[in-house]
Amino acid sequence: MTVEMTYGEAALVALRQEMARDARVWALGEDLGPEGGLAGQYRGLQEEFGPDRIVDTPISESMIMAAGVGAAVAGTRPVVELRFADFAMCAADEIVNQAAKIRYMFNGQARVPLVARNAMGLRGGIAAQHSQSLEAWWVHIPGLVVIAPATPADNHALLKAAIRCDDPVIYLEHKGLWGVKGPVDPDAAPAEIGKAEVVREGGDLTIVTWSAMRGVCLQAADTLAARGIAAEVIDLRTLWPWDRDAVIASVEKTGRLLVAHEAVRAGGFGGEVVAEIAECCWGSLRAPVRRLGAPRVPVPYSVPLEDAIRVTPAHVAEAAVGMMEGAGSR
Amino acid sequence: MTSSSNQAARVLGMLRTMHTIRAFEEAAAQAWRDGHVRGSVHQYVGQEAIAVGISANLRPTDYVSSNHRGHGHAIAKGADPVAMMKELFGRTGGTCGGKGGSMHVADFSVGMLGANGVVADGATIAVGAGHAIKVMGEDRVAVPYFGDGAINRGPLMEAFNWAKVYRLPVLFVCENNAYAATTRTADVTAGEGFIARAKSFGIEGEAVDGNDVLAVDAAAEHLIARLRRGNGPAYLHATTYRHHGHYAHDKGAYRDPAEVARWRESDPIARCAAWLVSQGVGQSDIDAAESEAQALIARAVSESNAAPWPAVATIYAEVQDLDMEVVGAPR
After folding, report:
1. How far is CA A132 from the centre of its chain?
2. Does the distance separating the beta carbons of B114 and A106 come in below 8 Å?
3. Looking at chain A, which terminus has fewer C-beta neighbours within 10 angstroms, N or C?
4. Is the distance from CB of A1 to CB of A185 less than 8 angstroms?
5. Is residue A312 part of a domain?
6. A119, A153, A184 - which closes a domain
7. Is this complex scored with an ipTM above 0.90?
């Protein structure tokens, strides 16, 4: 039985379900109670579960994260709200040196079952310190699981999975998606972490993407279809572990791989995906692999400047056409 | 009479643990010089009374967290010195299977949440464990040990504030050995000092002679009892000194030899033994505490030398649960 709800509401439903199901689940962060979170994703939960399980905290990112780490090794399952991906940098030590390392360096004596929610991406007009997409930083750290849901249904099923995961999860909701509506089955089981979704099938080229770029790539696929090009669009959903098998299966069919993400292209996770495929699927490739991402500049404020760093459906379509027709194809 | 002889027996036990820590540290440094232990070995020699006096008032279910100088904290909380030595040797049977080494000895089965290589991070994690105690409604306390160097890290100030705001059962224990690595902490610390910082957050704070195990024991007894009554966090400032340098390869040349000599005369083990003599405890019992500790550590070293190296395949164990296909192993 599916219900239409927003991406933000879907996360609220998931957290409420997990808190009702497991008394060890609690949430902490700034402005969760009265404000209900930046997008209402905690609305009403403090009234329902009390201030000891929906904890309003001081602006102390290091301690917010460390409280999550310490409480996770001591038997609870905290959901740590860091508000903006940019602010997760204030807690980077606790994430990288503690949460990601504890299970390994103590050889499994403790697990760190926490979810660090830090919304990524462009919302429009909030400039350099509130708009970044930093998923590649987290993917680079052994020990972390990295999830970036693109739809309301995924923000429900993947958040449930993240809360039940016994390892630390960096959970990257996209600020531009909070109000996007879609069908959600509130009774859906937790999604499988590490499983991509083939959103649209096609035989001519594979477009791999995640988060808000899923919608951009689907628009591009419509444009391409009108020009007789059948694009297969894969939403990775989980960036670590990523569904390498799904991408390989698609590229073996299409022979062409384009990865599109909102993050800065240089050093972005797209580089890892194309490199892996170039290494293992060289014989299947009929054109050079391609990446699309933002130029290596901070996110600017003014409308035309910000627009200039966005990867648009036109960019994706243009790149795809180039791969079908351009030099280097075979 | 009975009560005082009970106390003497209890303190004799503390002496034995202090000897175990000291023997462990001297053996670890020797093994480092011999090339059996790699990296950094931060010795707790001279500071033993603090962890031992605190742990005498803790239960197995209570938590402690530690810093880079963590061997003493672990032994005092009940970790097995043999498994710890194997860890320093990087061998099978080590507390962390050879993945942690000296700076990450840990024994969660006795509530020892790990030595920690990032200054002040053990303290913030212990506050988090204290928050879990509150969320779960448990009867435990959490004790983070940190050095004077941590007092100038921002996260510790966040931790003080946090523990007080949420009234968590946390006893902050600062081991002030006067040096942050090789820098005199007093030279780089503004304001009225350590206790004033804790008190500025409304945390009860007191100072103790950290080389007097009886004084540490007494302070810990009433402060931890206060925690168990639900009165929120407390801060104990223990003044002490390390006999050796910051780590095994530091000769400590930045310290005045007269200062070092003065502190060595205030050795916590000698002071504890002298007190026991004054209470009529026989010299043979006091000597036995030392010889038993040395025998245990000698066995730890010989077992560590004999223990097999871990299998290389274990580098992939305990990273995370999911999909090892994409870990990036050479293939």
Report:
1. 12
2. yes
3. N
4. yes
5. yes
6. A184
7. yes
